[in-house]
Amino acid sequence: MRIGNTEIRPVGGGLGCLLMILFSILASVVLTVLLNLLV
User: Fold this and answer.
1) Rounded Cα gap, residues 19 and 3, in angstroms
2) Those residues with Cβ within 8 angstroms of residue 2's Cβ, 6 or more apart along the chain or in another chain
3) What keywords are assigned to this protein (predicted)?
4) What's the helix, strand, coil split of the chain in %, to 5?
5) Residue 1 confidence (pLDDT)
6) In the beta sheet, which residues pair with residue 23?
7) Which residues partner with 2 through β-bridges?
8) 7: CB partners within 8 A, 6+ apart
C-alpha cells in the first residue's frame, strides 16, 4: 500500500494484514455486545 512516496507494509505480509482486519472486526463486535449488555 502506497501513500505518497512512502510504502506501508502490513506486519507479516498479506496474512498479517488479513488477521488484523479479522481481529478489528471481532473486537468491534465484542465491544458492541458488551456495551449493549451494560446499557
Assistant:
1) 22
2) 8
3) Membrane, Transmembrane, Transmembrane helix
4) 65, 10, 25
5) 62
6) none
7) 7
8) 1
CA distance 17 to 21: 6
Identity of the residue numbered 2? R
Contact 20, 14 (CB under 8 A): no
CA distances to 7, 8, 29 from 24, in Å: 22, 18, 9
Which residue in 27, 20, 19 sits closest to 35, CA to CA? 27
Evaluate if pTM is beyond 0.85.
Answer: no
Cell numbers standing for residue 14: 498479506
4's grid cell: 505518497
**Single-letter amino acid, residue 29:** V
